[in-house]
Specification:
Strand 3 and strand 4 form a beta hairpin. Strands 1, 2, 3, 4, 5, 6 and 7 form a seven-stranded mixed beta sheet that branches. This protein is globular. The N and C termini lie far apart (43 Å). The chain has one domain: Flavodoxin domain (Rossmann fold), CATH 3.40.50. It is an alpha/beta fold and 206 residues long. Helix 1 crosses helix 6 and helix 2 crosses helix 4. It has seven helices and seven strands.
Length: 206
Amino acid sequence: MTRHLVALSAGLSQPSSTRLLADRLLAATSATLDERGVAHTTEVVELRDLARDVTDMLLTGFAPPRLADVLEKVRTADGLVAVTPIFSGSYSGLFKSFMDVVDPDALRGVPVLLGATAGTPRHSLALEHALRPLFSYLRADVVGTAVFAATDDWGANGSTYDSAGRLQSRIDRAGSELATKVEHYAGAAEDDPFGDVVPFAEQLGR
């Protein structure tokens, strides 16, 4: 069975450190799955490209085709990487708006890895007091290690240059944790609305 991983990047600029972190987390997860011989595909979704579509759905209740396609990919994903910039101590408005149009049951039991970026390390706790509660509310299976990257964690060419390698080490650990959950994820069970219906012949026999 081929696993499908989807990364959501809520970065607003191009290039974006948020997208960079999403790519690194996805690559770390993919590398671990490769080592374990688990077939998989990966895809990155830039939420900035869906901003107008998200607004339209919030106003009308209907998803434009492009957004509907992304929502279906999220619903059927075997693993999700979700990365947002931090503004005013919490996730971005774009990230929250997108999550508001995701079906409340779409992420139930889905393995999720959380990441965040900001200009200063002072925002690092937003992962725990903002993002983790959001995905817990959605009943996702969130990995224990979340990854925060401040501006100073990136080199000029996008490489990690913290002297102790702490960021890359955390990325690798988080990717390994997500890979483990993805490897054992059974997939979303389709609810059968008629699964509990008693056959007519059996009803007559009662």
